[in-house]
Every structure is written in C-alpha cells, then in structure tokens.
C-alpha cells in the first residue's frame, strides 16, 4: 500500500509512506479521536532539488487517510515547501512556525490549522 504513495526523487516519500502506514494501523477509536482533534485536510506541495513538485494529502477531517495527489474535497490548508524542509519538520529538527517565519514554508488557506501539522507529525514519529 505505501509503495503507491512514494515518488522517486523525494525523501519526503518515505516519511509520508510511514505516516500512511501508521494511520492505517490506528484503531478506529483512536483515528476518530485524531480526526475530531485536528479537523482538517492538509495538502502538501513539496518541491525537490530538481524543481519537481509532488502533492500529497493528509485527510484528518473525513477519513483519517494519507494519499498521493490533490485533496478531494478541497484542502483546508495547502502547505508549499521543499523536500528538505518537510523532512526536517517531520524529524523534529525544524519547527513549523520557524520555517514559516523564515520563508521555508508557505501556506494557502487556514494558517491556524497549519500549526496543527507539527502535532500530527510528532505523534506519528513517536509511534514509529
């Protein structure tokens, strides 16, 4: 299942595949709690060093899933960042607020929801 989500040339692919696997293994009650707590759809537009862009979606509003491609329905927040920045965010080396203030992370949509991504990534990192 996670191989279909990977995109060659993106280090983020492994992180996102792990996130997808982790969400898939959550007990239903825990998944519902995470959806209730986050209540948002994140679209990640990640650009690698070759200036190629890949898009993934984290749906924590309806289904509690992670998939490759644009958000369906429309994302509540779109995050635009580099591959390296996403990997640093996911590993905890970089704080989302710092990345935003430094111009490493751009958003479209609900900026306050974007602040919840740090928590989503941290919670999944702890489980892996």
Automatic annotation (TrEMBL):
Protein name per the record: SCP2 domain-containing protein
Domain SCP2: 24-121
GO cellular component: cytosol
Domain of life: Eukaryota
Pfam family of the protein (one): SCP2
């Amino acid at each position: 299942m996670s191989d279909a989500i990977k995109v060659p040339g993106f280090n983020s692919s492994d992180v996102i595949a792990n996130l997808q696997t982790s969400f898939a293994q959550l007990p239903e009650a825990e998944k519902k709690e995470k959806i209730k707590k986050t209540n948002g759809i994140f679209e990640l537009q990640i650009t690698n060093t070759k200036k190629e862009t890949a898009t993934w979606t984290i749906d924590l509003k309806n289904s509690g899933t992670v998939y490759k491609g644009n958000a369906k329905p429309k994302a509540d927040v779109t995050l635009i960042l580099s591959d390296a920045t996403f990997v640093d965010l996911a590993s905890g080396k970089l704080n989302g607020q710092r990345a935003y203030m430094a111009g490493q992370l751009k958003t479209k949509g609900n900026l306050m929801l974007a602040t919840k991504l740090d928590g989503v990534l941290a919670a999944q990192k702890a489980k892996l």
